[in-house]
Every structure is written in structure tokens, then in C-alpha cells.
Amino acid sequence: MTQPTRVSRRSFVVAGVGAALALGAGGTAHARGRSPFGRYGSPSARLDERTLYVHPGGLGDHTTVQAAVNAASGSGHTLVIAPGTYRETVAVSAARTELTWLGASEEARDVVIVYDNANGTQKPDGSGPYGTTGSATTTVQADGFTARDITFANDWLRADHPGITGTQAVAIKVQGDRSAFLHCRFLGHQDTLYADSVALTAFARQYFAHCYVEGDVDFVFGRATAVFEHCHFRTLVRTDLAGAPYGFVFAPSTAVANPRGYLVTSSRVTSEAPDAYYKLARPWVPGSDPTARPMLTVRETRLGAGIDAVEPYTNMSATYPWQSQRFAEYRDSGPGAEITVPANRPQLTRAEAASHTRRTYLGDWAPWSREGC
Fold it and tell me: What is the pLDDT of residues 113-131, one digit of tens each?
């Protein structure tokens, strides 16, 4: 399989943003009177008193996303974020509930929140490395968070830092219950999307619809109850490895008491890498929760040739074999879904599949009912 030329992570992250910046940054589009905030109003014509506007060139209430988050104290605020690349880390505390972020252009490529910390990156104060959690470009702990039409990225590259062995670099860590991401992109390499919860006993529900996620090692991971619907997962080429496997798409760490882990439905997995160079998943049983029993169901999803159809699952640790976890598939398609060794591909029956739906996973919360979902 011919491998495409790989554009550098930083140039790829900002692709398309330059043109969009003309909306409100003094460019032609703004000169014609078009608002950098699209149909979402402006500081002089707010949607309501709880709407704040972010613009990198100063045409909004704030020039950074974190400044706007800080100003949105309490519950029920909306941030309208103008096109631009926001190079910063952002943290949403648990107190800022029911917060909504809207990409003003309604195109996720135009609004990029990105930084480049990794697990092994040393903190400026000399206190040690950030660790995996600390590497996150964006961290969301609040319940009721919604993001639409935004790119979350971590553009740290292994090749730029050969001396760092802690190569996990999180684009976003989501811990809150009822967190919804609609038409968003998540860009990174290792540990791109951390779908988690605030505690072992907190079964946070999260919903990702019409999203794009890319990476290489465990790039969708954590212990949340998460539904991925109509999403595109893309595995990347690795130049630092000579052979397979390059990595793993999913690494759930579901708490044993949680009856629902990750559900992937009506989605697709494609690859830049050679055929069969990726595993679909491996279970993560972290040291902080040795009783975890990871759960992943992939149903009615197309698996491209990049997935190893013979052995799609593998162990992270021999102590916790994947066969003892809650992994299953149902009516998947594509070359990566071909069942050549039945023992390696546990399948749900039709009756079992009836309990693996977005409604059974998310209960009384129905985020798909929102406009455009």
C-alpha cells in the first residue's frame, strides 16, 4: 500500500483557518459587513445576556477561550468563538455547568483550540512532567457541556522530542456528565480523546455525533459511558516504527460497576497506514482501578483495511486479557470486519444488540434530539 506524504501536524491543524480569519480580522469578508460571529449575533447584538464572544483580533468580549470561560461564572453560558487558531490550554471547572461552545463559522476546521504539551513535557516551574492528564489542551469537568463545530487538538510530535518517553499528548479530557460534541474534530497522536469521568463511582455520559477523531496509540480512551454515532476514526502513519502494530483505536477503562462503556455505532474507521497495521482496541486496566472491566461495542460500523481482521484485539497487560473484558461487535462491515477467526471476534446476538443502543446507554438524556444532530 502506498503511503501518502504526511503533512506536519502543525500545518494540518491550521489548514483552512487562514481564509476563515478574514471574517472579522480586517479581511475582505469583514469589509463587506459580514460578522465574524456568523448567525450567532455579536457583542452589540447578543443572543442573550449569557452569551460571550471570543475573537483573536479583539472584535469580541475576549481574545482567548480561557478568558471567556473565566468570565462565564455560574451556569448556562454560551461562548461564540470566531474563526482562528487559539494556541492555549483551557480548563472548564465543575462549577461552570451547562456551558455551550459554538464555532461561529459552523465549520470545525475554522476554529482550532490547540497546544503541545505531552506526558513527559516538563512544567515551567520545575515541579516535574505534566503527566497524561496534565497534557490535555482542553479539560472539561463540568456537567452539561456542549461543543459544536470546533477542533480540539494537541500538536505535540514525537519526532520533535526524541528524548521524551512519555508520549501521551491529550487533545481533550472530558469528565462531566451529559457532555455532547457535535460536528467536532479531535486531532492528535497518542491519547487524543480522553472520554473519562471525575471519579470511579461517577458514570459520566458523553455523546459524540458526526465527529472526526484521529491518532495512533489508544487515541480514544477512558472510563466514561460514551456513544460515538456517525463518527469517523482515522489511524495515522508512524515513521518511528518499522512494523505492525502501529497502534490501537480504542482503550476503554470502564469501571466494573458500570454497565455501559463505549458504544460505536453507524461510524467508520479508515487508515493512512498499511493494511492490518492497527488493532481495533485493547483494554486499559489502570493502576488506579485494578478491578476495571473495559467495555466496547462496535456495531453497524465500517472497518477499513487498516484494522487487523485476524486479530483485531490485543492485551495491554497479560494480567488482564482482552477475552475477559466486555468487547463485542454487531453487523460491522468492510475488510477490517471480516471474520476469519471467530474466537477473535465476539459477536452480539440480535437480542443482545437490542440493549446496546444510544438510548440504553444514555438513559433519560437524548442529545441527538438537538437541531442538526
Answer: 999 999 999 999 999 999 9
